[in-house]
């Protein structure tokens, strides 16, 4: 059975001379928590609006359950949207806000009541049906917006930065709630967010967008550990970049030269012997030692240290132009890492811990 619920093929949308969405291909698995992640203006909302039917592509095709819905009206799609500003009806109470879609479908009152009660219970607003919207906190309004969309039992729930207006603590609670709702209902969620931590912690799969294009799609771990582009490596988490020259490629391993030292890295399609490329290194994969070890390593000088509780961040200068950020776990009392500014150290990492990236201008 085909398990893809939402499918975009070569979808493009232009506004004047801005290409907001540029030949985007996406496949969302049924029952997945899927995120569209990227900086402001990269085309996330436009993509979501086209899936919802509030906007149409200039070219390309959108399918839901294999059916071409590119030009169908929103109400003809089994899709509901939670908007960034909630878009609740301020003159109606909670019950009427949630019942709105059901009334439009002309369900009988008993069925409407039972469905609204069911969903209000599920979003933890039981007994609040007669409250006015203005009498609710931001978090409660968010739940009403969710209930109003979910009560229609859509095939896909689209969420556009739904938590952006909430404060930090409430945001975390709602992240947890969203995940719980998605699991309990088994509905496919497509979340738009510019918050990489939100996308990583909540999603089964993430599509990273940049300037209208999808640069990478995959499970959070893959995207973090194996970024496809410099943009992805830089946007997700923290990355150190170092310029290298490729010496040889053999059996899936590539040898590069970095500050006159040979370094072993996983090979990368299209990055061949003689090429100039970049290494991306995550701070927590870099281990500091006082004595040289065998394997990938660079000598350096500690520039500064910041105690972070669970770990300490040391900046290490490895050349005139390059300072690496490293993160050392403070594992046990007594075994705490302690390097002082000015001290000579070695930065070590395993051959699988770096990502080889083609140079940015040749990546596209
Ligand atoms: N209705 C519109 N008219 C003109 N330009 C638009 C319109 N909607 C979006 N854009 C432009 O398209 C680009 C992508 O916007 P958007 O999809 O809202 O990005 P995001 O949601 O990732 O912040 C931006 O450059 C934005 O200014
Ligand atoms: Mg947006």
Structure ligands: adenosine-5'-diphosphate, magnesium ion
- Say how many strands there are: 20
CATH architecture of the largest domain: 3-Layer(aba) Sandwich
Structural class: alpha+beta
Low-confidence parts lasting 5 or more residues at pLDDT below 50?
A: none
CATH topology of the largest domain: Rossmann fold
**What's the shape?**
elongated
Strand order of the largest sheet: 6-7-8-3-9-10
**CATH class division of the largest domain:** Alpha Beta
For the record, what is the CATH homologous superfamily label of the largest domain?
Answer: P-loop containing nucleotide triphosphate hydrolases
Helix content: 10-25%
Number of helices: 8
Number of domains: 2
Could you give a short account of the major beta sheet?
6 strands, mixed
Order of H and E elements: EEEHEEEHHHEHEHEEHHEEEEEEEEEE
Strand content: 35-45%
Mean pLDDT: 93
Radius of gyration: 25 Å
Question: How would you characterize the overall build of this protein?
Answer:
The chain contains eight helices and 20 strands. With 364 residues, it is α+β, with helices and mostly antiparallel strands. It folds into two domains: 4-229, P-loop containing nucleotide triphosphate hydrolases (Rossmann fold), CATH 3.40.50; 238-362, OB fold (Dihydrolipoamide Acetyltransferase, E2P) (Beta Barrel). A six-stranded mixed sheet has the order 6-7-8-3-9-10, sandwiched between helices. A hairpin with a 2-residue loop joins strand 11 (240-250) and strand 12 (253-258). The longest helix has 18 residues, at 168-185. The model has no long low-confidence stretch (mean pLDDT 93). The site of magnesium ion has 2 residues, from helix 1.
């Amino acid at each position: 059975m085909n398990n893809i619920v939402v499918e975009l093929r070569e979808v493009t949308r232009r506004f004047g001379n801005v290409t907001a969405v540029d030949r985007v291909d996406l496949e969302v698995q049924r029952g997945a928590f899927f995120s569209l992640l990227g900086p402001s203006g990269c085309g996330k909302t436009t993509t979501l609006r086209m899936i919802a039917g509030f906007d149409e592509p200039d070219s390309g095709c959108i399918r839901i359950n294999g059916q071409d819905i590119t030009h169908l009206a929103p109400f003809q799609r089994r899709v509901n949207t939670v908007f960034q500003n909630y878009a609740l009806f301020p003159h109606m109470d909670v019950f009427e806000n949630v019942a709105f879609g059901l009334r439009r479908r002309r369900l009988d009152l008993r069925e409407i009541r039972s469905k609204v009660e069911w969903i209000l219970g599920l979003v933890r607003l039981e007994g609040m049906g007669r409250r006015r919207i203005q009498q609710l906190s931001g978090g409660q309004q968010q739940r009403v917006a969710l209930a109003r969309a979910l009560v229609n039992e859509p095939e896909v729930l689209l969420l556009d930065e739904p938590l952006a207006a909430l404060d930090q603590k409430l945001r975390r609670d709602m992240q947890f709630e969203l995940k719980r709702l998605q699991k309990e209902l088994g509905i496919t969620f497509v979340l738009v967010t510019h918050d990489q931590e939100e996308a990583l912690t909540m999603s089964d799969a993430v599509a990273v967008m940049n300037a209208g294009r999808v640069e990478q799609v995959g499970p959070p771990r893959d995207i973090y550990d194996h970024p496809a582009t410099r943009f992805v490596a830089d946007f997700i988490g923290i990355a150190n970049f170092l310029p290298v020259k490729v010496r040889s490629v053999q059996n899936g391993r590539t040898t590069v030269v970095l500050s006159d030292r040979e370094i072993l890295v996983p090979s990368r399609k299209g990055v061949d012997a003689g090429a100039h490329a970049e290494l991306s290194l995550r701070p927590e994969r870099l281990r500091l030692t006082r004595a040289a070890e065998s394997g990938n390593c660079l000598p350096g000088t500690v520039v500064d240290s910041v105690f972070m509780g669970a770990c300490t961040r040391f900046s290490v200068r490895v050349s005139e132009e390059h300072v690496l950020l490293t993160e050392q776990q403070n594992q046990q009392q007594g075994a705490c890492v302690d390097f002082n500014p000015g001290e000579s150290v070695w930065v070590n990492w395993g051959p699988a811990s770096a990502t080889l990236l083609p140079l940015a201008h040749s990546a596209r």
